[in-house]
Write a structure and sequence with these properties.
Pathway: Cofactor biosynthesis; biotin biosynthesis; biotin from 7,8-diaminononanoate: step 2/2. The chain has 13 helices and 10 strands. By secondary structure, the chain is α/β, with parallel strands linked by helices. An 8-stranded parallel β-barrel has the order 1-2-3-4-5-7-8-9, surrounded by 5 helices. Bound molecules: iron/sulfur cluster (SF4). The site of iron/sulfur cluster has 10 residues, from loops.
Amino acid sequence: MLTIDTEISGSSSRWQELGRRVLTGDALTIEEAREILQSPDEQLLDLLAATYAVRRAHFGHIVHLYYLKNAKSGLCPEDCGYCSQSVVSDAPIERYSIANERVLMEGAKSARDSQARTYCIVASGRGPSNREVEHVCNVVKKIKQEYGLHICACLGLLKPEQAQKLADAGVDRINHNLNTSRRYYQEICTTHTYQDRLDTLKVAHEAGMELCSGLIVGMGEEQQDILDAVFELRGLDVKSIPVNFLQAIDGTPLAQKDELDPRYCLKVLCVLRMAHPSVEIRIAGGREVNLRSMQAMGLYAANSMFVSDYLTTKGQSAEEDFAMVKDLGFEIVIGGHEGADDSAGLA
Ligand code: SF4
């Protein structure tokens, strides 16, 4: 009994010490990140408590909600193995070309009604046509006037002039996920490269927009691939990191992948928070099926999540999300706090 108590208090102080160091500005090392991913389940609450101290210092009890609008669905010539909208997917999804202004404005209203701070306009495809960029720019100006929402666009690979047009129209942020490591990327997609993704992030950044880029965990990668992607993001000045947990969709090449262990998902979120203490970490797709009954605990590491549905899969209802945040004693905030806040002690 004495041995067990000693082990428990040792793990508690180990993670507390790591959290303290991160809060004083020490950068998490890749070895420490690996240690978190491989930590025994018995230490999970200690690890989460230490991670929560870091989350609380930068984001208090605030939760930001994001609302996704699939502005163009399916019809994509790319072969991303996880995606139901790919040319290699037989998933029975809706397929349509870019949504008109009315539909995108209705989405903006739903975002506002769902207490979302950010409206994410997402279009399938390798990259947008110039006509699609013009259309998104025109609608974004109207959304900004009418609803004042923070806008994130996820339109695929961008050319520099397209990125500049989007920035000039008021798009605040571009989402383009790294998804996995450079090494593993070719296992999940052969029609574009990891470097193509980095290049799009670069042109978006140069155009003056914020960057949102994250991961998909559970695609058959090794732990090292997750760690490589987490640390690659460090050099990219990202403001927001969505962490997707693969929801294997029938008809896609990754359909047979098993659901993840929810405790492992929580450790991944702890790595992200410790490695990127002041960056917004968002629990993204696959939350419900992979974290399952432990969804709420994810918000002790992450400070943001999507509300309502994902691109081609259903999420839990907005009411259930509101109740979960309330039960945690956290607060949904629509505007204001931008993250990357170095004023520790918000809570
Ligand atoms: S480029 Fe986008 S829409 Fe196309 S298959 Fe890949 S993830 Fe899906």
